[in-house]
Amino acid sequence: MKPLKLLAFFIIPLGIIIAAVPPDRVRHFRLTADELLQEAGAGVQFVSPDAVADMLVQKDPSLRLIDVRTPEEYDSFHMENAINIPLSSLLSDEYTDILNQDAYMNIFYSNGSVYANQAWMITRQLGYENNFVLEGGLNYWFGNILSPQAPSQTSPNEEFAKYDFRKSAAAALGGGNIVTTEGSATAVRAAKPPVTSKAKKKPSGGC
Amino acid sequence: MGPLAPNEIISENTNFLLAFFIGIAFGWVLESSGFSSSRKLAGIFYGYDAVVLKVFFTGAITCMLGLLFMSLFGWVDLDLIYVNPTYLTSAIIGGVVMGAGFIMGGFCPGTSFCGAAIGKIDGMVFVAGLFLGVYGFAFTYPLWEKMYMAKYLGEPKVSEKLGMSDGLFGLLMILAAIGMFMVAEWAERKFPREEY
């Protein structure tokens, strides 16, 4: 067979195949159900409230708190510098750049950890990384970080160290003084999620 | 997964190392296909030898098919592939200048280095001319800048402009290539040349 015929014989069918398949809609890095189960089982998504408190006190610039509750709940109280992405609009295009990135450590929180966990699971399934869940949610945060209970006298030293840290963190984070917009003239403006342009790194090149 | 460097799977330096080896392989293929002879390249313009057209077009459609299939399998993100930005005026003028240079010199930039590497004097002269052109352009850049930057179109794709899928455009491209090869082979029979 002549080379040209041979080439045509192979390459035209390939062309027909590629013309017939729908264009690429594949999301890359999608996890399998097995992998997701394994990650969820190991609890890799949880960040302890103490770690979050520490980052907040240190003003860690890589920390980004994401409130997945409804806008009303968010308006009545939200953690310092948190942005609001309600669970129901998690998949909206405007939040893709916030959720799918590698610069920040996104930490989802809700009242408990159920909704935050759902948000993590959805984003993880999409293959996004750097999203985490505040362990215990806001309820634990209030009960233990902002108003820590003194351990009993017989507790081990670690408990006292933890208590001391929480006490100072609570002081730094304004424990007890809940930021509320209700009936307040100086309402805290809801932080808008930052709109970032897709900063995809392009290689330079040419002929 | 891919592309490897923009996704930081391999570092920029590894990328250059790979480019170095691919470049060597490219030069070797050029040389072993006889591209270091300027008559080969000139042949395409006179119709007696269409190897250049066939090799480069086969390369292009292989690459195109490879990328489309890899994208289909989820191995490469086509959005991250570098697409040369189009400045229409400079593309046309550059195309004319390059084409004229090809016919007159009998080399393209790649093959001139091949020719120079195996000791061909015309290849070396061509490389020297290439550098003269590059430096000449760079030092007089302010004179050209306006023209150079004119008619910026972004990074358009023909398939997008025509409103068809990449795959369909790929198929048309393949058919066009096969058609061109057939015409080229006909021209080779029509304008044969004994020794070159």
What does this protein structure show overall?
The complex is a heterodimer of chains A (207) and B (196). With 207 residues, chain A is α/β, with parallel strands linked by helices. Chain A has a domain at 33-172: Rhodanese-like domain (Oxidized Rhodanese, domain 1). Chain A has helices at 3-20, 33-42, 49-57, 71-76, 96-99, 114-125, 137-146, 157-172, and strands at 46-47, 63-67, 83-84, 105-109, 131-134. In chain A, strands 1-5-4-2-3 form a five-stranded parallel sheet. In chain A, helix 4 links the parallel strand 2 (63-67) and strand 3 (83-84). In chain A, helix 3 (49-57) crosses helix 8 (157-172). Chain A is elongated and about 90 Å long. Chain B folds into two domains: 1-82 and 163-196, no CATH class; 84-156, no CATH class. A two-stranded antiparallel sheet of chain B has the order 1-2. Chain B is globular, with a radius of gyration of 19 Å. The interface between A and B is medium-sized, with 26 and 35 residues.
How is the topology of this model organized?
The complex is a heterodimer of chains A (207) and B (196).
Chain A: H1 3-20, H2 33-42, E1 46-47, H3 49-57, E2 63-67, H4 71-76, E3 83-84, H5 96-99, E4 105-109, H6 114-125, E5 131-134, H7 137-146, H8 157-172
Parallel strand pairs in A: 1-5, 2-3, 2-4, 4-5
Chain B: H1 12-32, H2 38-46, H3 51-72, E1 86-87, H4 88-105, H5 109-117, H6 121-139, H7 141-148, E2 152-154, H8 158-162, H9 166-190
Antiparallel strand pairs in B: 1-2
Overall form of chain B = globular
What value does the average pLDDT of chain B take?
A: 87
**How many beta strands in the DSSP annotation of chain B?**
2
Oligomer: heterodimer
| Biggest sheet character of chain B | 2 strands, antiparallel
Strand arrangement in the largest pleated sheet of chain B: 1-2
User: Which class of the domain at 33-172 in chain A in CATH terms?
Assistant: Alpha Beta
Helices and strands of chain B, in N-to-C order?
A: HHHEHHHHEHH
Tell me the number of structural domains of chain B. 2
